[in-house]
Amino acid sequence: MHDMHPTNDPNLESFVEVDSDSHFPIQNLPYGVARSKDDGEVFICTAIGNYVVNLTELDATGVFDGPELDGKPVFRERTLNTFMELGRSAWAEARSYISTLLSADEPALRDNQPLRERVLTPMNEVEMLLPVDIGDYTDFYSSEQHATNVGSMFRDPENALKPNWKHLPVGYHGRASSVVISGTELHRPQGQILPPESDDTPIFSECKLCDFELEMGFLTGPGNELGSPISVKDAEDHIFGLMLVNDWSARDIQKWEYQPLGPFLAKNWATSVSPWIVTLDALEPFRMEGPEQDPEPLPYLKSEGNWTFDINLDVFLQSENMDQPHKICASNAKNLYWNIAQQLAHHTVTGCNVRPGDLYASGTISGEEKSSYGSMLELSWKGTDPIELPNGESRTFLEDGDEVTMTGYADTDEYRIGFGEVKGKILPAKELEE
Ligand SMILES: O=C(O)/C=C/C(=O)CC(=O)CC(=O)O
Ligand SMILES: [Ca+2]
Ligand SMILES: [Mg+2]
Fold first, then answer.
1. Is 247 a known ligand-binding residue?
2. How far is the CA of 213 from the centre of ligand 2 (A)?
3. Which end of the chain has fewer CB atoms at under 10 Å, N or C?
4. CB 154 near ligand 1, within 6 Å
5. Cα of 148 to ligand 1 centre, how many Å?
6. Rounded mean pLDDT of 341-370?
7. Which atom of ligand 1 is least distant from the CA of 171?
8. 257 is in an annotated binding site
9. What pLDDT, on a 0 to 100 scale, did the predictor assign at position 238?
10. 142 pLDDT higher than 80
11. How many angstroms from the chain centroid is the CA of residue 96?
């Protein structure tokens, strides 16, 4: 089903120098939106080595003149939504043009000094913005280890997974308005929590059990009409790419509010995403067979092809008293039971329509080892087993001033396809006005 495309050729090189551990070799070509720190210009871009490549500027020179993109100024916008709506053949055409333009043996950009200066900007001279106007955000719960851990802690260790869990990808509708770009600082949320001595009378308080969740998200392209489900088989045509997601969570607010309808305020205060969307095309070499699914899913959820991705995912924590981030979790996207094709098919099977730029997060991605648990809740086992930091501090949940950084990358012997990082810092709660 998936031929090796020349844009993934490990021997392909760019005229722009790329370090061997860079997340952005010519085989990646992720999409983002940047703002120049110099003149404030906002533009759609890709990344190569330590540079962003201004696609808005390139588009204006008329280089995107193939059958899918000609006459469609999709790169002259401030978000990627219109480009995402065009669909897979347009995405492939753009990737192939950009790959050629950046390759070492193509003179068009390489030898045009004035154009190169307009198009290539060092990453430290731009600020990355939210690349997509996200209309809807859904969060799944698709890691078996995570669901088992949380079910054991919050409910019953003997029946950690609810009876539905292996029959459908459980999820909830999240809050798109508070999806923020990496680097956004967040105030600790406040709300109703139960004091330790009470089972049924809440107090108003700042969140004391503030947490992150290590997740990957996918974004949809064209989308479907209301009433017309997207099948597992057609998912490929609708999934534009993946990004890193941190689904910040207030565990004490969650524990009191979530029954019977699921997370509400515990998770609506912020969800942070990485600036780069890595395309399915770039991830092609990292697709692998998924876990065996037993019981066998119903026919509409039966997966075809390889939809599991081998992507290393790391989480780092840095307190205000530390001078560098410390790794507290090493997981992998392959630790997901339900895959993104199944998630999309399930989401739309009722006829629910999805739109270009909608975001679907995987759910916390925990592996079997304790060191691969994707949240503080699990790493500190509900606060009973603190995480020791190298400067002598310890943590059960996040404290004010803590900064969480997640990174993700897939490796071959020849190159690395990375997502960059998603970072966020917890600031003290805001005082409520009387
Ligand atoms: O099982 C629960 O009660 C709660 C689970 C979560 O908080 C996880 C959630 O948001 C979905 C996920 O990230 O896997
Ligand atoms: Ca989550
Ligand atoms: Mg959230």
1. yes
2. 6
3. C
4. yes
5. 10
6. 98
7. 11
8. no
9. 98
10. yes
11. 24
If you measure from the C-alpha of residue 81 to the centroid of ligand 2, how many angstroms do you get, rounded to a whole number? 24
Of the candidate CATH numbers 3.90.850.10, 3.40.190.10, 3.30.750.24, 3.90.1720.10, the domain formed by 137-427 belongs to 3.90.850.10
Pick from 66, 152, 11, 23: which is nearest to 410 by CA?
A: 23
Mean pLDDT of the chain: 96
For atom 5 of ligand 1, the residue with the nearest CA is 150
Helix (H) or strand (E) holding 256: helix 251-257
**Of all protein residues, whose CA lies closest to atom 10 belonging to ligand 1?**
363
Which ligand is nearest to the Cα of residue 364, counting in written order? 1
- Cβ < 5 A residues, ion ligand 2: 139, 213, 247
| ipTM, 2 dp | 0.91
Active-site residues, by number, are 146
Confidence of residue 199 (pLDDT cuts 50, 70, 90): confident
190 C-alpha to center of ligand 3: Å? 15
Is residue 171 within 6 Å of ligand 1 at its C-beta?
A: no
| CB-count burial class (<10 Å; 0-12, 13-18, 19+) for 350 | exposed
- Is 201 a known ligand-binding residue? no
Angle, CA 120 vertex, CA 119 and CA 124 arms, to 5°: 135
What CATH number does the domain located at 6-129 have? Answer: 2.30.30.230
- The pLDDT-based confidence of 434 (bands split at 50, 70, 90) is low
Question: What letter represents residue 130's amino acid?
Answer: L
Q: Report domain extents, the chain.
A: 6-129, 137-427
- The pLDDT value given to residue 4: 57
For the chain, give me the number of helices (H) and strands (E)? 10, 26
Atom of ligand 1 nearest to the CA of 215: 13
pLDDT band at 3 (very low <50, low <70, confident <90, very high): very low
Domains 6-129 and 137-427 equal at CATH topology level:
no
Whether the predicted pLDDT of 1 surpasses 50: no
Query: What spatial distance separates the first Cα and last Cα of the chain, rounded to whole Å?
Result: 62
The whole-number pLDDT of residue 432 equals 78
